[in-house]
Amino acid sequence: MHPEFVQIEAKYTSKTEIYLRKEAYQSFVRMHKAAAEAGIQLTIISATRSFSYQKSIWENKWDRPKYMGWKKIDVAKDILKYSSMPGSSRHHWGTDIDLNSLDNAWFDSARGKKMYDWMCENAAKYGFKQVYTSKENGRQGYNEEKWHWSYMPIAAPMLDAYNKQIKSAEIADFKGSTLADSLQIIQKYVNGIE
Ligand SMILES: [Zn+2]
Questions:
Q1: Where in the chain are the domains?
Q2: Can you give the pLDDT at residue 101?
Q3: Ligand 1 midpoint to CA 159 (Å)
Q4: Sheet hosting strand 128-130, strand order edge to edge
Q5: What's the gap in Å between 7 CA and the centre of ligand 1?
Q6: What is the predicted pLDDT for the residue at 146?
Q7: What are the residues whose beta carbon lies below 5 Å from ligand 1 (ion)?
Q8: What's the CA-to-centroid distance between 137 and ligand 1, angstroms?
Q9: Is the Cβ–Cβ distance between 97 and 20 less than 8 Å?
Q10: For the chain, which residues score pLDDT lower than 70?
């Protein structure tokens, strides 16, 4: 319902009801058109996520049978390879999208590589950037995500505002939340970007 958000049209997404900030969406639409002209289909598979939605993602993983007998800290670290604690996800901001596949291996396929190479070459013209890049150069936090693109004209000031306003203790109200401080969620994960 927020006036700065808009629902993503069906032709751009595999989901039924997802939203982005208007400016990010308008820029995505231009990028989508340019990609289509180059024979590439960009499909949004995730966009804005609320705290409660992120909490359901996190807790569904937290409760997976494979973690039986694990130390809580190791469970959290394992989930944090690719998923954020609620309250610390860039998807809360309305500026970030996941495109085409949530599997890095897909981006090595012929279609995936063509799409990824096009994005690396062109996304910046539309304000989009891959923030979770290779960790070879010492970037901390989440593993590389070739699908996650951030609309930087809004996301960059959002990160500044986040850093000024949010404290570890406010990352709370979900399973494992008390680990946020010792895992340095804000320093290593929220700020662990390219
Ligand atoms: Zn994402």
A1: 5-190
A2: 98
A3: 15
A4: 44-46, 96-99, 148-151, 128-130
A5: 18
A6: 98
A7: 98, 148
A8: 21
A9: yes
A10: none
Distance separating alpha carbons of residues 25 and 120, to the nearest angstrom: 19
Residue 99 Cα, ligand 1 centroid: separation in angstroms?
8
Distance 82 CA to ligand 1 centre (A): 8
Q: What is the pLDDT of residue 91?
A: 98
Sole residue written with tokens 């401080």: 181
Looking at residue 99, its pLDDT comes to: 98
What dihedral do alpha carbons 58, 146, 31, 7 form, nearest 10°? -10
Q: How far is the CA of 37 from the centre of ligand 1 (A)?
A: 25
Contact 119, 175 (CB under 8 A): no
* CATH number for the domain formed by residue range(s) 5-190: 3.30.1380.10
Ligand 1 mean position, distance from CA 98 (Å): 5
Residues 21, 26, 31, 33, CA torsion sign: positive
What is the pLDDT at residue 187? Answer: 97
The pLDDT value recorded for residue 169 is 95
Determine the distance separating the centroid of ligand 1 and the alpha carbon of 97, expressed in angstroms: 6
